[in-house]
Write a structure and sequence with these properties.
The chain has 343 residues and is of the alpha/beta class. The protein folds into two domains: 38-119 and 222-337, 3-Layer(aba) Sandwich (D-Maltodextrin-Binding Protein, domain 2); 122-213, D-Maltodextrin-Binding Protein, domain 2 (3-Layer(aba) Sandwich), CATH 3.40.190. The chain is built from 14 helices and ten strands. Strands 2-1-3-10-4 form a five-stranded mixed β-sheet, sandwiched between helices. Strands 7-6-8-5-9 form a five-stranded mixed β-sheet, with helices on both faces. Helix 10 packs across helix 11 (258-268) and helix 11 (258-268) packs across helix 12. It is globular.
Length: 343
């Protein structure tokens, strides 16, 4: 019965085609396969830390994958990271305005595209038991700092200038081993530079209360944010946008429940689990620095770029002789990836 056999074969083939079509249709709605995902290498700070919990969370929770991304993290010191981002060896990185401005003025093609820290985290610390409680009180004091370079050095000069002081009005003591906070605790210096989400936490947990002097009121230096090289910005613009969306989603999630961030960080860096209370304290201070000074508590973290702060920082750094060639706001930032301030 060749006619019946032919009809049976035809119906079987049609059924197979329908099944294959159904499988393809169902799989097309899922997250992109690893081979189809856009690969991004992201440079974070020198040491893996709970401070990077938002990035760990976005990766572990699949937020990057949902944006069609395959993200690899690497840790770099700022001096190495910025040139690598400019050259396209690293797709994205973290850097603050005091690093971006001189880099761009020297011809390194990078742009700052989203704010992570709404407040500049570099600060000056003094002891509560007799230390200066204002910038003016630093006159004649010994101030510990890793060296006369980088964000801490720019911040210190801006802070002193806010009280009409210069570095010549204080004694700068350099600690290349980053031991200035220990020196403050031991009384070897009167003040020390540090980061608002690190040294103050450590000192207070050791029983030493501190004053935290910031530069926000005078020159709101742009805090660390996402930077991208010019070539990557052109070739992977959609991926950069997806990375920012996913990271902001994780930041807001962690801000609502810091334990989520601690869990993500300890999964990424198991050694952090040895002291969870310290990690939670550091992360809590980090979350506070994510929002701009004066922002509504509990309000959304948007990553928006505060243009006035950048403009003031350009002028301040130019007066310090740290801008090799003139730069404009448009040379430094791309505000198209985040919601405008106040939106």
């Amino acid at each position: 019965m060749p006619g019946l056999r032919a009809r049976f074969v035809a119906r079987t083939l049609a059924l197979l085609v329908a099944v294959v079509g159904l499988v393809v249709a169902c799989s097309s709605g899922s997250s992109p396969s690893p081979s189809a995902a856009t690969k991004l290498t992201v440079g974070l700070g020198y040491i893996p830390s709970v401070q990077f919990a938002a990035f760990y969370r976005a990766d572990q929770a699949g937020y990057y994958a949902a944006e069609g991304l395959s993200v690899t993290f690497q840790n770099e010191i700022d001096q190495n990271l910025i040139p690598k981002v400019g050259q396209g060896q690293v797709d994205l990185g973290l850097a603050d305005g005091t690093s971006v401005i001189p880099a761009v003025s020297q011809g390194i093609p990078i742009k700052y595209v989203a704010t992570i820290y709404g407040q500049f985290p570099s600060v000056v610390l003094t002891r509560k038991d007799g230390g200066a409680d204002s910038a003016a009180g630093l006159r004649g004091k010994k101030i510990g700092i890793p060296g006369k370079y980088g964000s801490s050095w720019v911040m210190l000069q801006a802070l002193l200038a806010s009280a009409n002081l210069k570095t010549s009005d204080v004694t700068v003591v350099e600690y290349p081993d980053f031991g200035q906070a220990t020196a403050l605790a031991q009384g070897a210096v009167d003040a020390a530079t540090g980061f608002v989400n690190n040294e103050p936490v450590q000192l207070r947990q050791s029983g030493i209360d501190v004053n935290v002097l910031t530069v926000e009121a005078s020159v709101p230096l742009p805090g660390p944010g996402v930077i991208v090289g010019g070539t990557t910005l052109q070739s992977k613009r959609a991926a950069v946008a997806g990375f920012i969306r996913a990271t902001l989603k994780a930041m807001n999630e962690i801000a609502a429940d810091p334990s989520v961030g601690v869990a993500a960080a300890t999964k990424a860096v198991p050694d952090l689990a040895k002291d969870p209370s310290t990690q939670l304290a550091i992360l809590t201070a980090t979350i506070a620095a994510w929002r701009p000074a004066g922002a509504t508590a509990g309000g959304p973290i948007t990553g928006s770029i505060e243009s006035p702060g950048w403009t003031k920082t350009i002028a301040a750094m130019d007066s310090m002789g740290l801008v090799a060639k003139p730069v404009t706001l448009a040379d430094l930032v791309d505000t198209s990836f985040t919601a405008p301030t106040g939106s």
